[in-house]
């Protein structure tokens, strides 16, 4: 069946948005605005699966909204809103909790990573988070979901849930099977301190990431301190496989300079990493500092940000209610 193309994605308001969010997700959000209808959500209900201080959560919702706008999302083109303001997300999540299987959730690696060694103490919300994510997407019958590589497994689960719903309720093609849109050139930006871990908001050390709110000074300091390698840059990409931090810096530079990674490596081979770091810091400053300044400007008018969210919620709610009416009918709810 030919479904109208629609993109949906979300970002958790759990603190400073960083270069990983930007290169892995936000840049794609922006370019998709010219290709299809787009809905972008500040997923506050996902954020509370791990305890958030209420006042910080409130500020982070606005800061994430400001980051959406500062990176180029346009509220006249895309629907921008916060998840908790459209109650259809939680209603559909409950229905999908009854479709999804415990065995499927038990396979989710992100729960294992985030819950840590004492799973008994993790919130139930953290465990069933992927079902809420499926509800976010299916509520709008989204066909495309731009995400970083770390969300691939959750997207596969969303497809399984959509397929099972369509089978269980005998409504072939009711929910489209959402397609992940994951960057081929930079699907996962890694920590600047440990190239085996992804860059993350919740990592304790601020030196592990470039935040979208960082100044030129902070970017310079962080790149100078970033882990690299004591040997010069090699001429073969295969030799970088055992040097994840060095490969990460080269990959980020390749992405920012829009130059193929192999070409960057051949141009820089034999040079010290300090050479790459100078170029990388310049490229980052050029890309991130205007975003950082715009975020700060937008945050000085919080009522404007709240108005954008309210308008977005109203638009999202119209689509959600229409789809929910059909979903309730399929399930047999009166
Ligand atoms: N390091 C990354 N590289 C590429 N993409 C990334 N994304 C996150 N980190 C990277 C993508 O950004 C979008 C929004 O992610 P999120 O903030 O909602 O959740 P997350 O993946 O859990 O991000 P963090 O930074 O790791 O947050 P915390 O520390 O709070 O858990 C998603 O599309 C994600 O793939």
Question: Can you describe what's shown?
Answer:
This protein is mostly helical and 334 residues long. It is globular and about 70 Å long. Helix 8 (152-168) links the parallel strand 4 and strand 5 (179-181). The chain is 53% helix and 7% strand. The chain has 2 domains: 6-187 and 302-331, HUPs (Rossmann fold), CATH 3.40.50.620; 206-297, Tyrosyl-Transfer RNA Synthetase, CATH 1.10.240.10. The longest helix has 30 residues, at 302-331. A 3-stranded parallel β-sheet has the order 1-2-3. Strands 4-5 form a two-stranded parallel ribbon. It has 13 helices and 5 strands. The structure holds adenosine-5'-tetraphosphate.
Rg over CA atoms, rounded to whole Å, is: 21 Å
Task: Give the structural class.
Answer: mainly alpha
Total domains, how many? 2
Work out the number of β strands.
5
Residue share in β-strands: 5-15%
CATH architecture of the largest domain: 3-Layer(aba) Sandwich
What fraction, in percent, of the residue positions are helical? Answer: 40-55%
Q: Which cofactors or ions or other ligands sit in this model?
A: adenosine-5'-tetraphosphate
Q: Gist?
A:
The chain has helices at residues 19-32, 44-47, 54-70, 88-97, 102-106, 109-115, 124-138, 152-168, 216-225, 244-256, 261-268, 273-299, 302-331, and strands at 6-11, 37-42, 79-82, 144-146, 179-181. With 334 residues, it is mainly alpha-helical.
């Amino acid at each position: 069946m030919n479904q109208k193309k629609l993109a949906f994605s979300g970002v958790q308001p759990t603190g400073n948005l960083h270069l990983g969010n930007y290169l892995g997700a936000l840049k794609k959000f922006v370019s998709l605005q010219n290709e299809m209808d787009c809905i972008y959500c500040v997923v506050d209900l996902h954020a509370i699966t791990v305890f958030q201080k209420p006042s910080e959560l409130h500020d982070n919702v606005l800061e994430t909204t400001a980051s959406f706008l500062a990176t180029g999302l346009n509220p006249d083109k895309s629907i921008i809103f916060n998840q908790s303001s459209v109650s259809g997300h939680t209603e559909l999540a409950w229905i999908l909790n009854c479709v999804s299987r415990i065995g499927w959730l038990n396979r989710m690696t992100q729960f294992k990573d985030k819950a840590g060694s004492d799973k008994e103490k993790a919130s139930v919300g953290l465990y069933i988070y992927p079902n809420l994510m499926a509800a976010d997407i299916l509520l709008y019958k989204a066909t495309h979901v731009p995400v970083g590589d770390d969300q691939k497994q959750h997207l596969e689960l969303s497809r399984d849930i959509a397929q099972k719903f369509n089978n269980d309720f005998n409504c072939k093609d009711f929910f489209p099977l959402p397609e992940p849109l994951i960057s081929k050139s930079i699907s996962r930006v890694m920590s600047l301190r440990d190239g085996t871990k992804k860059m993350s908001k919740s990592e304790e050390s601020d030196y592990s990431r470039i935040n979208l709110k960082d100044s030129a000074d902070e970017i310079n300091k962080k790149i100078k301190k970033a882990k690299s390698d004591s040997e010069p840059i090699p001429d073969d990409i295969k030799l970088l496989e055992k040097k994840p931090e060095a490969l990460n810096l080269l990959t980020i530079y390749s992405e920012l300079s829009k130059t193929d990674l192999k070409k960057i490596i051949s141009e820089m081979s034999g040079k010290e990493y300090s050479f790459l770091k100078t170029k990388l810091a310049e490229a980052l400053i050029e890309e991130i500092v205007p975003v950082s300044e715009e975020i700060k400007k937008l945050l000085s008018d919080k009522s404007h940000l709240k108005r954008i969210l309210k308008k977005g919620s109203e638009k999202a709610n119209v689509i959600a209610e229409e789809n929910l009416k059909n979903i309730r009918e399929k399930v047999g709810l009166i």
